[in-house]
Amino acid sequence: MKAAIKIFCLIALLLAGCTYTEVWEKPGGNQESFNMDSSECEFIAQQLSLQQSETGKRIDPIFYNKTYIECVVAKGWSPKRDTAELKKASDAERVQQLAESININTVTGFGQTITVPNIYSLVKNKQFYSGPTIIEQFLWKGEDSSFINILFQENTGGTFQKNSYPVSEPYVLYTSGIGEKAEEQLQWTTFWGNIDSDWIMSTGAYYYTSKNKRIIIAITKPLVPPSGEPPPNVTLTQNQFMQIEEFSNQWQIWLNEQFPEGPGLLKQMIRALNFGI
């Protein structure tokens, strides 16, 4: 007898938010045995994906999802999909490219053109499939040891919830907000972390171009070590606070320049004319 176990998609951290579900089955399997196997695979995927991230300090969500699925399959579980789901997966596999064009320091996709500063060089361009979700990644490395990670993401099997960019341990929220003109279509978060004596700061953003398409951006840079002891009830020292404040302001401006207008322009115009909407 086969047990069919339903789980939600495991596109963790910055890929979170899709509505896709997966059904797993295994001869003689039940919910308890699946939970045990799943927990072990989650741990393995977490440890391995840390090694695949651009800094080596934060879980790489794409590799996490891939590793988790491979581990579950290796334990004898297989996905069970109906005809409609198989068609969606087939349609996703036929898509070859999300970005329309790429140049030395620009990439265009979903009707948006993103221009990275000249100090950055493209070091990675890959495409991934996670269930019905297609992801195309562009990773730039800067001369100042920073990274700009840009992902075009299309969900062919559902819609994205309009979530703010997530912050998970061991990272700590510094500040967050929305776009100046694109408003809720652009949501950004600045955060920092101290991992194994390494200090890291990052600004991440979601830009929603439609219900099933979004652009994900994460800018990561080393944060200077503390200078002395922080004041009581404060985690960062003054030199760290000044650096992350400058970093956050710099990339907020850059993000607003990349996404000057979002869908809902008519609503913005009406608001500007004091119609109270």
Search tags:
single chain, 277 residues, alpha+beta, Protein Transport Mog1p, Chain A, 2 domains, three-stranded antiparallel beta sheet, 27% helix
Task: Give a structural overview.
There is one protein chain. The protein has 277 residues and is α+β, with helices and mostly antiparallel strands. It has 2 domains: 1-81, no CATH class; 97-277, 3-Layer(aba) Sandwich (Protein Transport Mog1p, Chain A). It is 27% helix and 35% strand. It contains 5 helices and 13 strands. The chain has helices at residues 31-50, 61-74, 83-94, 238-258, 265-272, and strands spanning 2-8, 21-27, 78-80, 99-102, 106-109, 112-115, 120-130, 133-142, 147-155, 171-178, 186-195, 198-208, 213-222. Strands 7-8-9-13-12-11-10 form a 7-stranded antiparallel β-sheet, sandwiched between helices. A 3-stranded antiparallel β-sheet has the order 1-2-3, with no helix packed on it. A hairpin with a 7-residue loop joins strand 10 (171-178) and strand 11 (186-195). The radius of gyration is 21 Å and the shape is globular. Mean pLDDT is 77; it is low at 6-21 and 89-96.
